[in-house]
Amino acid sequence: MKHTWKLLTLLILFSCEYSKFESEVTLPRLFGDGMVLQRQEAISVWGKGIPGENVRVSLAGAITSGTVEADSTWLLQLPELVAGGPFVLEVNRQKINDVYIGDVWVAGGQSNMEWRLKSQVIGAEKEFAEGGNQEIRFFKVPNSYSAEKLDDVVGGEWKIADSVNMKDFSAVAWFFAKRNNQEMKVPVGIIESNWGGTPVEGWTDAEILVEMEGSFLAQAKEVVENRDAWVSKLQVNEMNQHLRDSMVSNPDTLAARNVSSTDYDDSSWRKINLPDANPLQHIAWVRKKFNLKATDEVSLHIPTIDQMAYVYLNGKLLKYKDWGVSLPEIAIPSEMLLKGSNVLTIRAINTWNNQPRIGQKGEMYLLESGNKVSLEGTWAYSNSIVEPHLPKVEFFNWMPGMMYNAMIAPIAKYSIKGAIWYQGESNAGRHEEYKELFSTMITNWRRDWGLGDFPFLFVQLANFMERKDVQPDSNWAFLREAQAQTLELPNTGMATIIDIGEAEDIHPKNKKDVGERLWLQAKKVAFKEKNLASGPQFDSLSRQGNELLVKFKSIGEGLKLTEGEEVKGFIVGKDNGDFQQVSAMISDKSSVRIMIPEGMEVGEIRYAWADNPEVNLTNNLGLPTEPFRAKFE
């Protein structure tokens, strides 16, 4: 009987203790099944609940508890934990499963960070074939913006890097995460918070920007001083965006079947000469009739359509093309074709600038048993007969603080190892203010996270656009210099990719080298290894008669050339901007010798100083020399 009373007392006490943590709580969207939490760092867990009620959090044997504040918020911290998993995170009665502890990184920036692995990335098929990695997980923060700081992101979920999910992951972040997992032997979580075409001020708190000088100041003040008006304006813009996106992604199936059929009367449509003229706007429909002698072994070749397209043949949908991918050559099923007259119809949309473009010279044809049937020339087109004009949607997300409020502020309590960043293209025209802006953004993020000077690793702009041997006024070169100057901040690292860009594509498809060069920086900056992480960097300049001797650091085993015997990429000039190419040779393992043009007593030397410079100087790891400029006399 005595033992029975003791047991009953224990049960009552346990029941009372358990009931203390029964209240309902809500968690941010980042806390979900499959999540990755940062190892060896105090783990913040937060949310909302009923004021005064108790909250208990447990994970991997660690437990903490507290009380909901009067404003309905709560925040608790678990102690530092070692890598491992899967675990269950328990918050009162809620259970979050398949939780891993490892390294967590924020992947920020614009389209080159956003660029998906499936979008013609070099080597992607090999990655898909390997099947992914269960210990790598991605959380994609949806593109959103706000005039006020949000408590939570508007959507998103953790996704395991299997062969299906990984196709939509950031390619740069994937190759980075893969290295992190392989070399540190820990799970890796990537929080993608990026948006194509966006400037750095959109990712920075507007309340900080109003204290600075720059082209962004008037907009920053407008956002801060008229916040309520902006909240209303953004609501209208968001409604227009939802309507536009619904119109774009949900074509009327019956209408599409009718418009793309062979007997549809398009005589009221205007005529267009593709690909020479592209006066297309809104949801553009184009039609072209063609004749076939046979229906077997026919394929369609129109790789270039900007951005999205629905391709119909004789009233049936043949292919949907998403943004960021080329349209592959399509083998057309014979049952979709007719002997004699056929009609090809394309529904094209470009939500970026409302100007869809179709085709490229020499790249619009059918193959009929190996013979080309040209599709160039006259097409019928309509910008408004089939579907109404798209509602106007403004890029308010570009304004100071807008993306920061919706895509950075809500995640800033989540413990991370650091950030990787690829951006700058949208600020190249305002390069003179980029160093201060970019440095301010980094400092802003570090302040919000409260983790000290966490590692911040970024990509210097790639080579792009027409190649010019001498281009001292290149905006992209000045922007690269501003990026390099940002290295003055502690715990920063820069991946130089001046050698892997593409002249005609702002989105180079070699993302593997980008991710892996960022990883080299991570090993050095975040994990304090003594590895060679950068290409050769300018160290000093001396003059010997009519020659300059440029000394480099970060050379590893010594300077190398990827091709030829002369060093390419050097120009010299006077203060008046009259520059010219000069010959240069590797002098020793760490130096390059350059001939000064006759009569030039004082001047400046620059390396890789152009939008798309031709360069060939590396270290033994094949990492390219960083662009620079220096005075001499």
TrEMBL record:
<keyword id="KW-0378">Hydrolase</keyword>
<dbReference type="InterPro" id="IPR005181">
    <property type="entry name" value="SASA"/>
</dbReference>
<feature type="domain" description="Sialate O-acetylesterase">
    <location>
        <begin position="397"/>
        <end position="509"/>
    </location>
</feature>
<dbReference type="InterPro" id="IPR039329">
    <property type="entry name" value="SIAE"/>
</dbReference>
<dbReference type="InterPro" id="IPR036514">
    <property type="entry name" value="SGNH_hydro_sf"/>
</dbReference>
<dbReference type="InterPro" id="IPR008979">
    <property type="entry name" value="Galactose-bd-like_sf"/>
</dbReference>
<protein>
    <submittedName>
        <fullName>Sialate O-acetylesterase</fullName>
    </submittedName>
</protein>
<dbReference type="Pfam" id="PF03629">
    <property type="entry name" value="SASA"/>
</dbReference>
